[in-house]
Amino acid sequence: MKLSISQNVHLVEPGDFEPTDHWYPRVLNSNIHPLVAYFLNLSHDQMTERYQRLNPMADKEALMKILKYQPTYFRWAGTDLMHVTNHEGNRKLTVIETNSCPSGQKSMPLLDLNVEQGGYKRLIEKTFKPMVEQHPEKGALAVIYDKNPMENIGYAATIADVFGENVFLAKFDKTDQNPPVKFEEGKMFVKNEKEKWEEVRAAFRYVTQEPWNRLPKNSRTLLLNPIEACLSGGRNKEVASGAYDVFNEEFKDKGISIFTPKTFTKVPFEELRKYYDILGGSMVIKVPDSNAGQGVYTIVNEEELDFALSQISKDDLYLVQQLIHSNYLEGLDTSKAWYHVGTIPDSKGRSYAFDLRLMMHATDEGIRPLAVYSRRSGFPLNEPLPEGKNSWEVYGTNLSIKGEDGWTYADERLMLFDIRNFGLLGLGVDELIKGFVQSAMAVYAIDQNAIRTFGEKKANV
Amino acid sequence: MDTNKILIVEDDVVFCKLLTRFLTKNNFEVLDAQAGKSALNLIENNSFGIAILDYRLPDMNGIDILKKIKSQGSTTKVVLMTRYGDEGIANKAVEEGADAFVSKPINPTELLEVIRGL
Questions:
Q1: Would you say A145 and A207 are in contact if contact means Cβ atoms under 8 Å apart?
Q2: Pfam families, from UniProt (chain B) (predicted)?
C-alpha cells in the first residue's frame, strides 16, 4: 500500500486485504444463519420451482429467463425490499428501490469461513474479472468512489489480489473542483505519484452522488457499473418506476410482476397536496434521484406535509408513493392498503419496520444473490408516536447519518443475517426466494430499459 | 505525556483509516482529525507523543497547527507530510520546528521508521 500517491489517490497492492478493515466489527464476529447460507446456495432451478409452488400462476420458463439473464449494463445491483401484508394476511416482499453500486459487503457474514475475502471476492472474480478479460483497452485498474471507504478499500485490495497487480484507489467526489480522475474521449485517467495522468482500462465504480455529472456514457474504460445503468433507473426512482411498468406489461400473461407500493410519477409540487388527499391523508414523497435516505419524506399528517413542502423545490417533479402503514386503520381501502409485518416483537412487545437489502451480481450462470442484510426503524410500529416525533422514526430504515465529519451509520439498527439477528426478522427461505425473484425482475427491467434507451452493445462479458 | 499516542491530521478519510490501522497494529494509540479546527480541539484535550500533519487542510495548513503546538511549549514531536514538489514547504516546516517531514506518497513502513527515530 502506498498512501496518498497524489491528492485523494492511494495505490493498493496485492496482499493489502485486511478483514478487520472491510467488515463492521460485529460482523467479523458473526456466523451466517444456516437458512441464509442455504438460500444463497440454492440453484436457479430450485428457486424457480419453489417460486412457482408459492405463486402457482407464475410461468417457470419466464422466471428462468429472468434469473439466467445476462445484463448488458446493470451487472451489480442492490434492491431494498419491505415485508408487507394486507388485511387478508397475504404477505409479500415489495420493491422499494433498486440501486446501482450498492453497499452491503461490510454487513454480510462470511458464507464460507475458508474464503477470507467473502463476497468481495465473489463479486470481483465472478463479475468484474470476466468483464475485464474481455475488454481490449490498455491501462491500469482502479476503484473510484465517493462514499463507503470501508468497502472500497476492500474492493481495491481484492482486485489487487485477484489480478495480481496494483490498483489505484481514487476518490471522485462531486464537490471536488480538481478531482484526481478525468475522462478524455471516454477513456478514464487517474493521477499517479508524479501527478501525471495514467490511463485506466477498467474501473470498479462506487460513485453514487449524481454520478451522471462526471461519468460519460459509452465509456471506453470498462466501468462496473457504467453510467447507463444509473440513467436507466439504477439511481433514479422515477425512471425505475417506468421500467417496472414496462416489465409488468411484458410479463402480464406470465403470472409474474414487480410489486411496488402504488406509485405516481412526475407529480408537480403544486399537486402534492392533492395526492395527500387521494391517498387518504398519508403518503411518501421522493426526490427521484435521491439516495441514502435523503430526499424521502414520510407523511402522516398536515404538519409533516407542510414540512416536506418547505424542504423541496417548487420547480421539480416528484415521485409519490402510497405509505406502507404501521397498523390497521379504520377507513383505509382494504383492497389497496398494505402494512409492515415488522420484526418479531421483542421482550417489551416492540415490533419495528425493517427493510431487506439484497445485493446481486451477474455471473456466468445468470443473476445471483451476493449479500443480504436488514435495517430496522428507530421507533416501534406498535406504539403511539410521541408528540414532536416525525413519522420517519417509524418508517425510515436508512442507517446513513450525515455528520460534520462525513457519513456515519446507526449501528444499533443494523440487523445482520446471522444466527443472533435473522430470527428476529420473522423471515424464512420462502421470503428470501420471493425477495430475490422480485429483485432479479427489477434488475432485468432496468437493464432492458437501458438497452431500449442506449442500445444493444457488447456487454464485455 | 503518552509517547505512544499519535495524532494524524489529514483530510483524506481513507488515508486516515489506512494509516490508523497500520500504526495501531504497531502498538500505537491513534486519534485522527480531518480538519485543522478539529485537530486543535484534540490537541487541547489530549497529550500526544507525535503529531503527523498534512500540509494541505481544508481550513488551515499543517504549519499553522505546528506553530500552535510549538507555541504551547509542548514536547509533541511533529512530522509534516508534504506532496510531490512541495520541498520548499518542508524546509519552512523544519524552520518552524518540525521534527521530521515525509513526502507523499507515504510508504507506511518507511513512516514507521521515521516515527521510531524521533
A1: yes
A2: Response_reg
Query: What are the pLDDT digits (tens) for A180-230?
Result: 999 999 999 999 988 899 999 999 999 998 999 999 999 999 999 999 999
Nearest chain A residue to B84 by CA: give it.
A194
> What tens digit of pLDDT does each residue of A415-427 get?
999 999 999 999 9
With a CB cutoff of 8 Å and minimum separation 6, the contacts of A265 are A238, A241, A242, A317, A319
Across the interface, of B10, B38, B84, the residue whose CB is closest to A193 is B84
Give the separation between CA A78 and CA A93, rounded to whole angstroms.
14
Measured from the Cβ of residue A451, the count of other Cβ atoms closer than 10 Å reads 18
Closest Cβ opposite residue B104 in set A4, A171, A406: A4
Beta bridge partners, A144, equal A170, A205
Residue ranges per domain, chain B? 2-116
Q: Does domain B2-116 have CATH number 3.40.50.2300?
A: yes
Residues of A whose CB is below 8 A from B12 = 4, 7-8, 171
- Looking at the partner chain, which of A3, A8, A405 has a beta carbon nearest the beta carbon of B34? A405
Interface test with A, best of B79, B104, B106, B107 (most A CBs within 10 A): B104
Compute the distance between CA of residue B6 and CA of residue B47 in angstroms, rounded to an integer: 9
CA distance A152 to chain B (A): 9
- A406-409 and A414-415 as β-strands: parallel, antiparallel, unpaired? unpaired
- What is the average per-residue pLDDT within B39-61? 90
Q: A-B interface: how many C-beta pairs under 8 angstroms? A: 63
Task: At A218, list the grid cell.
Answer: 459509452
Best probe of the A interface among B18, B30, B106, B109, by most A CBs < 10 A, is B18
Shortest alpha-carbon distance between residue B79 and chain A (Å): 15
* β-pair partners for A11: A2, A168
**Between the CA of residue B9 and those of A9, A49, A100, B36, what are the distances in Å?**
17, 57, 33, 7
Q: What is the pLDDT of residues A137-195, one digit of tens each?
A: 999 999 999 988 999 999 999 999 999 999 999 999 999 999 999 999 999 999 998 88
DSSP for A25-86, please give it.
HHHHT--B-HHHHHHHT--HHHHHHHHHHHSTT--HHHHHHHHT---SS--EEEEEEEEEE-
